[in-house]
Amino acid sequence: MANNKQKVSVFAPASIGNVSVGFDVLGMAVKPVDGTLLGDVVDVEYSDNSSDLIVIGQFADKLPSNKEDNIVWSCLLLFNQALAQANQEVVDVSLTLDKKMPVGSGLGSSACSVVAALAALNLYYQTFQQFSFSKQEMLEMMGQMEAQISGSLHYDNVAPCYYGGLQLMVPDEKVISRTLPSFNDCFYVMAYPGIEVSTKAAREVLPAQYSRADVIRHGQNLATFVDACHRQDKQQAFSVLTDVVAEPYRTSLLPKYQQAHDYLMAQGALAVGISGSGPTLFSVCQSEQQAKEFAQWLESHYLQEVNGQSFGFVHVCQVDENGAAELAAK
Ligand SMILES: Nc1ncnc2c1ncn2[C@@H]1O[C@H](COP(=O)(O)OP(=O)(O)OP(=O)(O)O)[C@@H](O)[C@H]1O
Ligand SMILES: N[C@@H](CCO)C(=O)O
User: Fold this and answer.
1) What is the distance between the alpha carbons of residues 38 and 31, in angstroms, rounded to a whole number?
2) Rounded to whole angstroms, how far apart are CA atoms 292 and 203?
3) Between the chain's N and C termini, which has fewer beta carbons within 10 Å?
4) What spacing in Å lies between the alpha carbon of 84 and ligand 1's midpoint?
5) Is the CB of 164 under 6 A from ligand 1?
6) So what's the pLDDT on residue 153?
7) Structure confidence at residue 1 (pLDDT)
8) What reactions does this protein catalyze (predicted)?
């Protein structure tokens, strides 16, 4: 019997799409070391009326005002369709999206909403309706929703956001994504400058074809990185973290990126890259001390003002091994 105490809450973390060497095929979930929830939260609770969506949070006003255009609403429709196909009863629920992630940031903002929504719905049904979809089925739905919003099917944000850790997308629909050993003693400085770059626009600047030299370099960098992850060879892994597929073409969309990249590399960063399709920059550091110094520098040199206001932020992060996680009921 449903009642008004039935409620679950799920957090889904930010992620670094591509990780420089794996365009559309590598992604890593991150979490700030100070405990800030860098990601979106979705609550699902019993409704005795009809299903609904409320959007709150710092970046709520950046989303479409009607709920039908919010990807979280599309997630509910897709989930209900899957329930019907599985001959399960569909119940009315009220969803609340706490939109903590800036849109078009390169932090996998839409993936955070998609993963938090679908994972929360699955948890709700598992807890109160004794039915749930498998993780694999969930990831497929998440990919479908991410494709709807960005115009192409790529799992490099939804897979790490859902599973956590460093994920490699494999061309096998029965697997989709495999966890790679990551460097969890490293620190990843994430600097979001406060401007918006849409994934769609950042894909449109990419060439349709690449030279043989680029193809060889890309294959060699990705293969060397994956091998070094398995051997936990940090120096080797980060020495090849160079993007030949997207970064050379996207730099022009990212004011101050090249200067920041060159400065941080000269100061001893293990690597610097564009997170996803940008504009967030990530920098890999050996020590927390170095990460904090870089964070301070990026705050003064990479964040930007839009109409006299700054929406940017910088966080010192580590790998988020958990991915989407239930939050204690408030
Ligand atoms: N809940 C939601 N979260 C994020 N974007 C949403 C959501 N609902 C609808 N949208 C719309 O989807 C589009 C998302 O664009 P885009 O794919 O560039 O963003 P993103 O996922 O935030 O980017 P990134 O992966 O670089 O962080 C925007 O037009 C936004 O208004
Ligand atoms: N891998 C995709 C999305 C990253 O968020 C891209 O770089 O366009």
Assistant:
1) 6
2) 32
3) N
4) 28
5) no
6) 86
7) 47
8) L-homoserine + ATP = O-phospho-L-homoserine + ADP + H(+)
CB-count burial class (<10 Å; 0-12, 13-18, 19+) for 251: middle
CA distance 231 to 223: 12
Query: Which of 24, 110, 198 for mutating ligand 1's site (highest number of atoms within 8 Å of CB)?
Result: 110
Residue 152 pLDDT:
80
In 3-state terms, what secondary structure has residue 231?
Answer: helix
Amino acid at position 94, single letter: S
pLDDT for the residue numbered 260 = 98
Q: Which residues pair with 166 in a beta bridge?
A: 28, 180
What is the CATH code of the structural domain delimited by 187-317? Answer: 3.30.70.890
Cα 173 from Cα 132, distance rounded (Å): 20
- Annotate 237-286 with DSSP letters as a single string: HHHT---SSSHHHHGGGSTTHHHHHHHHHHTT-SEEEE-TTSS-EEEEES
pLDDT digits 0-9 by tens, 152-204: 888 999 999 999 999 999 999 999 999 999 999 999 999 999 999 988 899 99
Query: Whole-angstrom distance between the N-terminal and C-terminal Cα of the chain?
Result: 22
Q: Is the pTM of this model over 0.90?
A: yes
User: CATH number of the domain at 7-180+321-326, please?
Assistant: 3.30.230.10
Which atom from ligand 1 is nearest to the alpha carbon of 97?
A: 1
Instruction: Catalogue the E-assigned strands of the chain.
Output: 7-13, 15-17, 26-32, 39-46, 52-56, 93-98, 166-169, 177-180, 187-192, 271-274, 281-285, 313-319, 325-326
Q: How far is residue 164 CA from its own chain's centroid?
A: 10
Checking DSSP bridges between strand 177-180 and strand 166-169, what pairing results, if any? antiparallel
Protein residue with its CA nearest to atom 3 in ligand 2: 276
Distance CA 14, CA 125 (A): 25
Q: Which residues of the chain have pLDDT under 70?
A: 1-4, 329-330
What was the pLDDT predicted at 330?
64
To the question of whether residue 107 is assigned a binding role by annotation, the answer is yes
Q: Are 9 and 43 in contact (CB under 8 A)?
A: yes
